[in-house]
Amino acid sequence: MATLPYFGEIDTEDDFFDVDTEFNNKELCIEIDFGGEEPKKKQLKQVEQFLKQLPALDEKIKAAIVADYTINDFGFVREYIRFFYESLEGSGDYDDFVNKADTEKAPDEQLLAQLFVNHLAIYPNEDTYAVLDYIIDDEQTDDILVVYVTVDGKIDGFTIES
Fold first, then answer.
1. What is the rounded CA–CA span in Å between residue 138 and residue 40?
2. Pair 126, 139: CB distance under 8 Å
3. Confidence of residue 130 (pLDDT cuts 50, 70, 90)
């Protein structure tokens, strides 16, 4: 047995763990997949440290998302916001996500500010240590902004998945 943040006590004879929890006032699903192998103490300690750093990592990722949007006209972040914006225009739900009266923030900035992590998968035995899925709303579109992260919390890239 071991204890992990968000999970509590886990049975270390298992190789897969998942929990639904609240994070920043939103629902977050966290999965840990040891790929069929029993977790080693060192791996569990790494996972524990990674999970303890999740609030700081989330802030770091959000800043990187905004930075990527700002400097990369053809990047995945800009494409995700464009997809979401287009889905709003097509659905008539624009006013639910964008405040037209807000003269301080453009619509795309308002959408960027609404991104939140709703899924985290940790793969201690893989090169890509963690995958975080960011969304604005899961009912508006199936598209997600995916962020790849190394074991030391370095952002390793973005992509979009459906």
1. 35
2. no
3. very high
